[in-house]
């Protein structure tokens, strides 16, 4: 199996590559980045990190003969053989560098114009290869996913815009709040919280409070609490950036979430009886929306989105989803 990480010399791309390479020692990983030397620095380090584990430290983690390679290509030099053709899954983290405008809430939109141009170029590159499931991380991820889909000519189900970190963030905040309500019951773990999030990866997130559970039981929040929960989810990635000297965004939760999605794609999809996962995919009438890409519940197979699941939403959730769609359409110039 082969994964291509486009933007693999950067923070998120190299973190995804590390996570995948250590989880799947035989996986071939290619890092595509115009900063090829920087990518090569990651590739050498990554290869050492995975080959390390074949040596006996008490016992080897895997058989040395199954070790996969980590390689680098410069996408601007028409690499042959084409790594897009070789890939079983692609991750796109290619992005304009973070600017001073991107350091606060709403900052994802500051790289819109340049990242749409990058997406158009990548789409042209991808177009000559067979459709391959592609997880899009570069921000603003829903708009970039939409542009990449349009430019590639691949089926819409090939594209999955990544927005899942918000699910981890909201679970953490809900666990804290529910624990504080009844301290005598002990702490609730975020692992016991289920709160899917639809909509935009940005200010227009739509937490589905009507389906939220703690330990499998429905949980209610007053409107004032919902506002505070939303505020936390929107702000915390920017607090993380600031705490890390405005250098990198949330590489660990993002790297882990993307690696989980890629792992499921390589295994042939999600379990049919598991909860759907919320990822951005181009819509064609689902939820009454067309010509826009935003996060909705999806079931995965080995090619990408096998099915978009249409949940019954509350009136407030539906209106918020429509507002998210409007905001995305507007910034793409689609009215
Ligand atoms: N969706 C999410 O949840 C989420 C989370 C974190 C970061 N992000 C976004 O992911 C993107 C990457 O973040 P980062 O911190 O890794 O940035 P980064 O600047 O460290 O890395 C971006 C990399 O893309 C490369 N690149 C630029 N143009 C390219 C092209 N045409 N082809 C291939 N590579 C190209 C750059 O050389 C650089 O190495 C940003 O847009 C960021 O906002 C999204
Ligand atoms: O890169 C960012 O601006 C933040 C990122 O989208 C995140 O959710 O961590």
Automatic annotation (TrEMBL):
UniProt keyword terms in alphabetical order: NAD, Oxidoreductase, Tricarboxylic acid cycle
Domain of life: Archaea
Binding site for NAD(+): 7-13, 33, 115, 137-139
EC code: 1.1.1.37
Signal peptide: none
Active site per UniProt: 201
InterPro entries: L-lactate/malate_DH, Lactate/malate_DH_C, Lactate/malate_DH_N, Lactate_DH/Glyco_Ohase_4_C, NAD(P)-bd_dom_sf
GO molecular function: L-lactate dehydrogenase (NAD+) activity; L-malate dehydrogenase (NAD+) activity
Pfam family name, one: Ldh_1_N
Gene Ontology biological process terms in this record: lactate metabolic process; tricarboxylic acid cycle
Residue ranges of domain Lactate/malate dehydrogenase C-terminal in the record: 186-331
Catalytic activity: (S)-malate + NAD(+) = oxaloacetate + NADH + H(+)
Residue span(s) of domain Lactate/malate dehydrogenase N-terminal: 2-157
Binding locations of substrate: 98, 108, 139, 169
Protein family (similarity comment): Belongs to the LDH/MDH superfamily.
UniProt function note: Catalyzes the reversible oxidation of malate to oxaloacetate.
PANTHER family noted in UniProt: L-2-HYDROXYCARBOXYLATE DEHYDROGENASE (NAD(P)(+)) (PTHR43128), L-LACTATE DEHYDROGENASE (PTHR43128:SF16)
Protein name per the record: malate dehydrogenase
Originating organism: Natronorubrum daqingense
């Amino acid at each position: 199996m082969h994964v291509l990480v486009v933007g693999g010399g950067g923070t998120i791309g190299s973190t995804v590559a590390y996570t995948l390479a250590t989880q799947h020692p035989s996986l071939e990983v290619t890092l595509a980045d115009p900063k090829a030397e920087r990518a090569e620095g990651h590739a050498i380090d990554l290869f050492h990190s995975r080959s390390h584990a074949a040596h006996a430290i008490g016992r080897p983690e895997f058989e040395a003969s199954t070790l996969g390679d980590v390689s680098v290509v410069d996408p601007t030099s028409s690499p042959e053989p084409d790594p897009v053709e070789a890939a079983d899954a692609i991750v796109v983290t290619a992005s304009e560098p973070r600017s001073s405008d991107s350091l606060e809430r709403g900052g994802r939109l500051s790289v819109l114009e340049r990242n749409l141009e990058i997406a158009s170029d990548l789409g042209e590159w991808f177009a000559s290869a067979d459709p391959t499931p592609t997880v899009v991380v570069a921000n603003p991820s829903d708009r970039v996913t939409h542009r990449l889909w349009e430019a590639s000519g691949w089926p819409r189900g090939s594209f999955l815009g990544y927005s899942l970190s918000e699910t981890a963030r909201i679970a953490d905040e809900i666990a804290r709040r529910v624990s504080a309500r009844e301290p005598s019951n002990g702490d609730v773990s975020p692992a016991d919280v289920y709160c899917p999030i639809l909509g935009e990866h940005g200010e227009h997130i739509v937490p589905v409070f009507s389906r939220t559970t703690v330990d499998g039981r429905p949980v209610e929040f007053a409107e004032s609490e919902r506002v505070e929960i939303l505020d936390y989810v929107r702000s915390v990635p920017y607090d993380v950036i600031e705490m890390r000297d405005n250098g990198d965004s949330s590489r660990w939760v993002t790297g882990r979430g993307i690696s989980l999605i890629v792992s499921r794609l390589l295994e042939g999809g999600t379990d049919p009886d598991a909860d759907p996962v919320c990822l951005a995919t181009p819509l064609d009438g689902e939820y009454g929306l067309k010509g826009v890409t935003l996060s909705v519940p999806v079931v995965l197979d080995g090619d990408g989105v096998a099915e978009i699941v249409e949940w019954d939403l509350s009136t407030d959730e539906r209106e918020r989803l429509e507002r998210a769609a409007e905001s995305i359409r507007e910034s793409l110039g689609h009215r």
